[in-house]
Design goal:
Rossmann fold; 414 residues; 7-stranded parallel β-sheet; 3-stranded antiparallel β-sheet; single chain
């Protein structure tokens, strides 16, 4: 009896740890004399002030598949649409955030900075948190929190089922960008089909690759699902976070450490760290580009993101630590380059022969980043702090031992 009890306990713990760990690295931020905007380092790094002179994401809807979004948060008033609630056992509906995380992701994307930073009441003091694309609309799709009473298999199935529904609803509702910051340790054909459905509807799907890069580094889904743009995270020194997962599922990276943003509960501000935050910033970047070029397809928006990305150092096109490189929204807006053909996906992640839900036999070892290179003057953007971002060269975090191939379900790279 004791052995059985221990096994059940371990199974519940594993399910909780592996599935949708939405609150990792997110903590309420106390009131402070400094302005909220002055502490949003990631916006300075991405050249937000210059970005907003070109695009704020107006006319673009971003679906946030998460724990719900508080439409009454001062920094999100007027930004949140009616969406869908797939978590009926929780209080309220998709406009009720059951743990604060979904509101946080929405804030990173679309925060208007009009809140007070001291709560989720009516606010309006003008010292709130900004999102990278404050002109976008948020489509909230609430999915259930992980059920700790279920086995890991059952929890995986729940995530695959509800996220698949959420993706299809988002695409049908006109969301051009779908942002997902949760995951299961196994995927499914149902999830793969839902992503393909969204792509066929001309949407882009971004998902976090996971925060267990230093503890097992097992691929998570939908981040490792074919057709999804998998997003890893960088610290303030623009090096990969030690727990940001690595592998062929990583397509791009973005800032993901100490990201100050609007969130649910408490002071209405949170200081978040992880691939969730990075995914929201990547999603916001796509929205900014699409607002400026509404005639482009999802393939063209993604290609421009790759055209203007800070590539890995050493000459390789990509590596398993930073993928193709770090987002550069300002450069994508100012010098997008050739968007290419409308119907050709720029990432070869839809040619996988194997998309079943069985787990890979092994996971890639965590990356050990190399030192960052010196600044390169020809990369700096005049008149903005983006030179810091460009100069430090995120791509220098080269994966050591990348020649060791490990089979991954996604089978993304040849």
């Amino acid at each position: 009896m004791r052995t059985s009890s221990v096994r059940r306990s371990r199974g519940r713990t594993a399910a909780s740890a592996a599935l949708g760990v939405l609150l990792v690295g997110m903590a309420a931020f106390p009131a402070h004399a400094e302005s909220v905007r002055s502490r949003q380092w990631h916006l300075d790094t991405l050249g937000a002030e210059e970005v907003w002179r070109i695009s704020k994401g107006e006319g673009v809807t971003v679906a946030v598949i998460d724990s719900g979004v508080d439409e009454n948060h001062p920094d999100l008033v007027g930004r949140v649409l009616d969406g869908m609630d797939l978590a009926p056992k929780e209080r309220g509906d998709e406009h009720t955030d059951y743990d604060g995380h979904g509101t946080g992701m929405a804030g990173i994307i679309a925060g208007t900075g009009t809140g007070t930073g001291t709560g989720t009441g009516k606010g309006g003091g003008g010292d709130g948190a900004f999102g990278l694309a404050p002109g976008t609309k948020i489509l909230p799709v609430r999915v259930p929190r992980p059920d700790q009473s279920k086995s890991l298999k059952d929890s995986n199935n729940q995530v695959n089922r509800t996220v698949s529904q959420a993706i299809r609803f988002s695409a049908d509702s006109g969301a051009r960008v779908i942002s997902i910051s949760l995951g299961a340790t196994e995927g499914s054909q149902e999830l793969t089909d839902a992503v393909k459905y969204a792509l066929d509807k001309d949407a882009l799907v971004f998902a976090s690759v996971g925060n267990s890069g230093d503890k097992g580094n097992k691929p998570e889904y939908p981040g490792a699902t074919p057709g999804v743009v998998g997003v890893g995270a960088l610290d303030k020194k623009l090096m990969p976070l030690k727990n940001s997962q690595t592998g062929p599922q990583v397509d791009i990276v973005a800032p993901g450490a100490k990201i100050l943003h609007a969130c649910g509960g408490g002071t209405g501000l949170c200081d978040g760290t992880g691939t969730s935050d990075a995914t929201a910033l990547a999603s916001a970047t796509a929205a900014l580009i699409w607002a400026e070029h509404p005639e482009w397809t999802n393939n063209q928006v993604l290609r421009v993101m790759l055209n203007t990305i800070k590539q890995p150092a050493g000459g390789e096109q990509r590596n398993d630590s930073v993928g193709y490189g770090a987002i550069r929204p300002l450069r994508a807006l100012k010098t997008p380059g050739d968007p290419g053909p409308a119907d050709v996906r720029p990432i070869p992640d839809l040619t996988a022969e194997q998309t079943s839900s069985s787990s890979p036999s092994a996971a890639p070892a965590p990356a050990k980043p190399a030192p960052a290179p010196a600044a390169q003057a020809d990369d700096a953007e005049a008149g903005s702090s983006t030179g810091l971002w460009i100069g430090l060269g995120v791509g220098a975090a080269v994966l050591l031992g990348a020649a060791v191939a490990v089979p991954v379900l996604r089978s993304r790279r040849s």
